[in-house]
Amino acid sequence: VLKGICGREREQVFTPDLWYETGDMGRIDAEGFLWFAGRRDDMVKIAGATAYPAETAAMLERLPGVERAVVCDVTVDGETRFGAAVAGTGLSVEGLATAAEAALSPFKVPRLWLLLGSADELPRLVSGKVDVAKLRELIEARGATAP
């Protein structure tokens, strides 16, 4: 970060209202907590359209019973699609897919679903962040499609 700041003029580093653009995205929940929701540069091209995993994950996390949702690109029948790992209680692939279809453009709806009992089951890096590469492998190996 410092390499991008040092030696540059203030106008080159900060927005006019003095924000520093990190590329991080987030959301504020009903209690006022700020949650990290991914990066703007995590964009994926699906069927020629621009899609952001964080957008789909945020929609899923608003559903009742969902503790955590992580979305990433996966390969389904040789094509790039979304896969989702969803942790929570009382969830079904069919229910999640139906809700996603009602709220999202068709290309943003995950094709593979991995249901987890708890967010603690998500693979993590030493830093504590979700290990997306490992998660992708899990979703492709064990994920289910909606009926």
Strand content: 25-35%
Strand order of the largest sheet: 5-6-7
The SSE order reads: HHEEEEHEEHEH
Helix percent reads: 25-40%
Q: How many individual helices?
A: 5
By secondary-structure content and strand pairing, the structural class works out as alpha+beta
Q: Sum up the overall morphology in one term.
A: globular
How many β-strand stretches?
A: 7
Low-confidence stretches: none
| Arithmetic mean of pLDDT | 90
Radius of gyration (CA) equals: 17 Å
- Main sheet makeup: 3 strands, mixed
Taking the alpha carbons of the first and last residues, their distance comes to 46 Å
Describe it for me?
A hairpin with a 2-residue loop joins strand 3 (44-46) and strand 4 (49-51). A 3-stranded mixed sheet has the order 5-6-7, with helices on both faces. A two-stranded antiparallel sheet has the order 1-2. It has a two-stranded antiparallel ribbon with strand order 3-4. The termini are far apart. The model has no long low-confidence stretch (mean pLDDT 90). The chain is an alpha+beta fold. The protein is built from 5 helices and 7 strands, in the order ααββββαββαβα. The longest helix is centred in the middle third of the chain and has 11 residues, at 93-103.
